[in-house]
Design goal:
Elements (H helix, E strand, L loop, with lengths): L1 H14 L5 E4 L5 H16 L9 E2 L10 H9 L6 E4 L2 H13 L9 E5 L4 H4 L5 E4 L2 H16 L17 E3 L11
Parallel strand pairs: 1-2, 1-3, 3-4, 4-5
Antiparallel strand pairs: 5-6
Length: 180
């Protein structure tokens, strides 16, 4: 699920004309690496350059979001035109840095987050984000528990495995690159 979410987020940016896409995470752990792998796969699949300097994942668990590193990404001429953020909180911080640097979200630098949290609807422009369908996952888990406990009858279509794919919730933070 995390790999695929990173893949579809990056693919969405590519489909909107962004070509110099960065990936930013606040911590290094399995989920941030999986999302990064999805990001890398989408770049490779589309024949885009993999620039390791555009990936910002702290090397140790003690390191956190680095404003200066994000500013360098944003301010270096023609270095990035979009940023895939590990989650919506990281996206919020990145958006603050974009504005602080005098750039416009979407037209100068497209942003996509992950989690589809309430932040997405309050930001201006509103944040495009990957949704991993947590309500649907919770409903499926509850149904499985109820079937196993005998409180719900077994279904003839009952599965032992479920696949809930994340999806993109499109808003205004990555409408398309103006740099062509």
């Amino acid at each position: 699920m995390y790999f695929y979410g990173g893949y579809i987020a990056t693919k969405h940016l590519i489909e909107h004309g962004y070509r110099k896409i960065a990936y930013v995470a606040q911590r290094r752990y399995r989920t941030s690496i999986d999302r990064c792998q999805g990001y890398l796969s989408a770049l490779a699949e589309n024949g885009l350059e993999i620039c390791w300097d555009r990936i910002r994942i702290p090397k140790t668990a003690e390191e956190r979001f680095d404003r200066e590193a994000i500013q360098r990404l944003i301010l270096e001429k023609d270095f990035v035109d979009a940023i895939f953020c590990f989650n919506d909180n990281v996206a919020l911080n990145v958006i603050h840095e974009i504005v602080r640097c005098g750039k416009q979200v979407s037209s100068d630098i497209g942003i996509i987050g992950y989690d589809d949290s309430d932040i997405c609807r309050t930001l201006i422009p509103r944040l495009t984000s990957v949704s991993y369908n947590s309500v649907e996952i919770g409903q499926t888990a509850a149904e499985v528990l109820l079937r196993r406990s005998g409180r719900l009858p077994a279904s003839p279509n009952h599965l032992d495995y479920y696949l809930h794919q994340p999806k993109i919730v499109v808003r205004e933070s990555c409408l398309g690159s103006t740099s062509g």
